[in-house]
Each structure stands twice: as structure tokens, then as C-alpha cells.
Amino acid sequence: MYRWFGLGAIPKAIRPVVESEGIVVADEGIPGRFLVRKVNGPGRRFRHRRAGFSGSLVVTSKRILGFAYRKPQINISVDDPKTAGIFVEILESDWLSLSFESSLFSDKWSGEIEFRFRTGKARQFQEALTAAGVRPRNR
After folding, report:
1. Per-residue pLDDT for 69 more than 70?
2. Is 138 exposed, middle or buried (0-12, 13-18, 19+ CB in 10 A)?
3. Residue 139 scores a pLDDT above 90
4. pLDDT 10s digits, 74-133
5. CB atoms < 10 A from the CB of 48, how many?
6. 4 falls in which pLDDT band (50, 70, 90)?
7. How far is C-alpha 63 from the geometric centre of its chain's CA atoms?
8. Distance, CA of 77 to CA of 120 (rounded, Å)
9. Bridge partners, residue 36, by sequence
10. Where are the domains of the chain?
11. Which of 49, 36, 44, 58 minimizes the C-alpha distance to 111?
């Protein structure tokens, strides 16, 4: 889908912004998975939900961005104290996991949200994310 339609690309409107911020590591057109566990929020309840997507992940000197089908899913400044509540983990040699408790971003929500990205740059992302304040997770 990425090669034919550009699904999973960094949005054209965002690209100049992230380039001006100084890209540390980026990858686009990568397969991903969105997982939720025991998530409760206003009008929503999920015990376990999984969905696949084509997306992109970008770490700049100022922020962390994750997109699924060109829609922003993760957009957090590296200066934001909430960054310390995000966990990064390499699940296999090429699967990178970013997970967090949903209540970190909204008091009305609870439960774990996880984004998995399949990228050959998993190790580079892990290093850049931990340098930005994201905590490594060892299960």
C-alpha cells in the first residue's frame, strides 16, 4: 500500500516541520500493529483489540511522532514530562514497541495502549527514544 498509494508515509504537510527540527531517525511505509488491553474511556471499552496499519515513525531533536495511515497517533515533545511514562522495547530484531498507560494523557481513560512498528532501524529508534527520555522496558 505504501508503494502504490503512499499509505504510511510521513504527511507532506508535516515533513518540512520535522526536517527543520532535525530528524534523528525516521522510517516510513512500515507495517505496524495497534494493541489495547483493558482500555476504558468515555463511551469506549476494549478488553483486547488489535489492528494492523502501515505507518511511519519519526524522532527529531524536539519531538516523537508516530503515524498510522498518515494520521497522527503519537505526537509528544521530548521536553514533556509525560515522555518518561512511555516505554520502548525491541520485541524481535525488527519489531519496536512503544507502550503507555492511557491515563497518562487523559484522566478519563485507563488501560494500556501499545504501538508496534516493524523496522530495520529498531535499534536506532530505541537509542534515540531513550536519549529523548522514553524508558526502556525489560519484561
Report:
1. yes
2. exposed
3. no
4. 999 999 999 999 999 999 889 999 999 999 988 899 999 999 999 999 999 999 999 999
5. 9
6. low
7. 11
8. 24
9. 49, 113
10. 2-136
11. 36
Which comes out higher in pLDDT, residue 52 or 43?
52
Q: Can you read off the three cell numbers belonging to residue 22?
A: 532535525
CATH of domain 2-136: 2.30.29.30
Query: Does residue 49 contact residue 95 with C-beta atoms inside 8 Å?
Result: no
Q: Quote the CA–CA distance of 4 and 1 in Å, as a whole number.
A: 5
CA–CA gap between residue 118 and residue 115 (Å, rounded): 10
Cα 13 from Cα 91, distance rounded (Å):
32
CA separation for the pair 61, 24 (Å, rounded): 6
